[in-house]
Write a structure and sequence with these properties.
102 residues; alpha+beta; three-stranded antiparallel β-sheet; 40% helix; globular
């Protein structure tokens, strides 16, 4: 049965670019946002640190050698410079390309 109220979180495998190597899959638990919330979120990007911005949409991860936390998310984003863009792009795509519709 189709639900009018989506689940508050959903899981997506994201290919994280690895410097000098092949992208590696990272399974993330994302937070769902409604259309107006998506636009406000994307509009809030300017001037924010990657870890602060990304932590608003990522609720956890699976099969990682460290527990999910704000510090470990910041460590991931620091170690893999292209990760923030890949994570954001996968979230937007999973929400149905909401960014392209706005």
């Amino acid at each position: 049965m189709f639900k009018l109220d989506p689940n508050p979180t959903f899981t997506v495998s994201v290919d994280i670019p690895v410097p000098g190597g092949q992208p590696q899959p990272l399974t993330l638990v994302y937070r769902h946002k409604r259309k107006a919330e998506i636009q406000r979120y994307l509009d809030s990007a300017a001037g924010r640190e990657d870890a602060d911005f990304i932590s608003e949409i990522v609720a956890g991860w699976q099969d990682v050698d460290a527990e999910f936390s704000a510090d470990n998310l910041a460590k991931l984003l620091d170690a893999y410079p292209a990760a923030a863009a890949a994570i954001l792009e996968a979230w937007v795509y999973a929400l149905g390309r909401a960014r392209e519709k706005n």
